[in-house]
Design a protein that fits this description.
This protein is an alpha/beta fold. The chain is 37% helix and 14% strand. The longest helix has 19 residues.
C-alpha cells in the first residue's frame, strides 16, 4: 500500500501546515493494527464455522490461554473480553476495597476500573527517571482505608517491582500490575506476568499482539485464578450451578483465533518493532530538544512504543505545536497520557488539588509524544518522519508565527 508522497521537505514553506502537500497520503497511526498471516487465520475461521462453537471457553480460547502461559512461564492465564474488564475482575478477585494507590500517568482505564467499583484511586507521582510509579512516594500515601497498589509497566518498561513488593508487605497491601503495555517483556530475566497477585495484559487492536479486543489475567495464585474463572462467567460452576458473583468477561473464539495467529508471528512483530526503534534512535540522536525513551538491553522488550520527550527549553516550538505540524503531514503522533488521570473527570472534581502532589506527572504530560511504529511503518518512512521533526524544530519561530496568525 502506497502511503508516502514523493515530495521532499527542504524548507519550512514545504511543510503542510505552511501550505505544502502532506507527506503521507494516508494517516500514519501510532498503533495501526499488526495483522498476522491471513491464510492461517482464515483456516482457523473455517474450523470455527464448522464447529459452531463461537464462545463459552471454546478450544481456541483454551489453546490461547495455554500457549500464553507457556510463553510467560506462569501457572494461570485467563483470557478476558478486554483488558478493562480484566482489571475490574482482578481487582474484585483480589478483594480490593476502600482506596488503592495508582499512578496518574496511565490510561484512564486503570483509574476507572477502580472507581467503577466504588474504590477510590489515590494518585501517586512517578519516578523522574523510569516514569513508573515511585515506590518512595507510595508508602506516604497509605491510609487506614488503603488495601492495595496497582503498578503500571509504562511502555513495557517494568515498575520497580522489588521495591513495590516491599512496600506492599510492610503495609499489608495487595499488589497488582497493569501490564497492558508489557506483553513479551521481562524483569530481572523473569517474564512480566509472574509478579504481584496478578498482572493484566491488553490484546487491544493497537497492541503488537492483538485479539481485535481482548485482555488476559496472568497469575501464579491458584485461589485467585479459581475466583477469576468463576467471575468471568457469571459465577457458573458447571450447568445451572452459580456459586459466586460474576459478570460476562469471556473472550470469543474468533478473538482467540486472532491471538493464536498473532503468536505465530510474534518474533516477526518484535523484530520490526526493534528495527523501528533503532531507526528512530539513529535519526533523532542529533535533533536538538528531542530525547528518545530508551529500553534496558539486558531485558526482553517489545519496543511497542516509540516515545519521544521534548525539552522545550532547547527548542523554539512546543510539543503541541510539533504535533500540529506532524498531523498536517498525516503523521498522527499522540500525547500519552495527557493530561493525566487526575485532570480527567470525575477525578478532577473529586481531587482538585491533586496536581500539587504530582509535579513529575504534570511535567511529563507536557513533554511526551508517541510516534508511529509497528508493521505499518518502515525505515524509509521513519527517516521522512524524523526529517520533518528536524525541520519543524529548526524552523520553530516561523511556524509559531504561522500558528499564531490562525488563532
Amino acid at each position: 500500500m502506497k502511503k508516502m508522497k514523493a515530495n521532499s521537505k527542504r524548507k519550512v514553506e514545504d511543510l503542510a501546515i505552511c501550505g505544502g502537500s502532506p507527506s503521507f497520503s494516508e494517516p500514519l497511526h501510532v498503533g495501526r493494527p499488526n495483522l498476522p498471516d491471513r491464510r492461517r487465520f482464515n483456516d482457523r475461521m473455517d474450523a470455527l464455522w464448522e464447529r459452531r462453537w463461537l464462545t463459552n471457553q471454546g478450544p481456541y480460547v483454551r489453546e490461547f490461554e495455554r500457549k500464553v502461559a507457556e510463553y510467560l512461564h506462569v501457572k494461570h492465564c485467563i483470557a478476558i473480553c478486554n483488558a478493562t474488564i480484566a482489571l475490574e475482575i482482578a481487582i474484585r478477585a483480589a478483594g480490593l476495597t476502600g482506596e488503592v494507590i495508582i499512578p496518574s500517568f496511565t490510561f484512564v482505564a486503570t483509574a476507572h476500573s477502580l472507581q467503577w467499583q466504588e474504590i477510590t484511586p489515590v494518585f501517586c507521582d512517578i519516578d523522574p527517571v523510569s516514569y513508573n510509579i515511585d515506590p518512595l512516594k507510595v508508602e506516604a500515601m497509605v491510609t487506614p482505608r488503603t488495601t492495595g497498589i496497582i503498578g503500571v509497566h509504562l511502555w513495557g518498561r517494568p515498575c520497580a517491582i522489588d521495591a513495590l513488593e516491599q512496600v506492599a508487605r510492610r503495609c499489608n497491601l495487595k499488589l497488582l500490575f497493569d501490564a497492558a503495555h508489557a506483553f513479551g517483556c521481562s524483569y530481572r530475566e523473569k517474564m512480566i506476568g509472574n509478579f504481584g497477585e496478578a498482572e493484566i495484559f491488553s490484546f487491544h487492536a493497537t497492541k503488537f499482539i492483538n485479539t481485535f479486543e481482548g485482555g488476559m489475567i496472568a497469575t501464579n495464585n491458584d485461589a485467585l485464578a479459581e475466583k477469576v474463572r468463576l467471575m468471568k462467567n457469571f459465577g457458573f460452576s458447571g450447568y445451572d450451578n452459580v456459586i459466586y458473583i460474576g459478570t460476562n468477561g469471556k473472550m470469543m473464539e474468533m478473538a482467540a483465533a486472532m491471538g493464536l495467529t498473532g503468536l505465530e508471528s510474534l518474533e516477526v512483530f518484535l523484530k520490526r518493532n526493534h528495527e523501528n526503534f533503532n531507526a528512530y534512535r539513529n535519526e533523532l540522536q542529533n535533533v536538538p530538544g528531542i530525547t528518545l525513551i530508551e529500553y534496558d538491553d539486558d531485558e526482553k522488550n517489545n519496543y511497542q512504543y516509540i516515545v519521544a520527550e521534548m525539552h522545550e527549553s532547547n527548542t523554539s516550538i512546543s510539543r503541541d505545536q510539533l504535533i500540529d505540524v506532524l498531523h498536517a503531514e498525516n503523521i498522527l503522533a499522540r500525547r500519552y497520557f495527557y493530561p493525566g488521570c487526575h485532570q480527567m473527570e470525575p477525578y478532577r472534581s473529586y481531587f482538585p488539588h491533586a496536581h500539587l502532589l504530582l509535579p513529575e506527572t504534570e511535567r511529563l504530560t507536557r513533554r511526551v509524544l508517541l510516534l508511529p511504529t509497528g508493521m505499518a511503518v518502515n525505515r524509509k518512512e521513519i527517516k521522512k518522519i524524523c526529517k520533518i521533526i528536524h525541520l519543524a524544530i529548526k524552523s520553530g519561530d516561523k511556524i509559531k508565527k504561522i500558528l499564531n496568525k490562525r488563532q
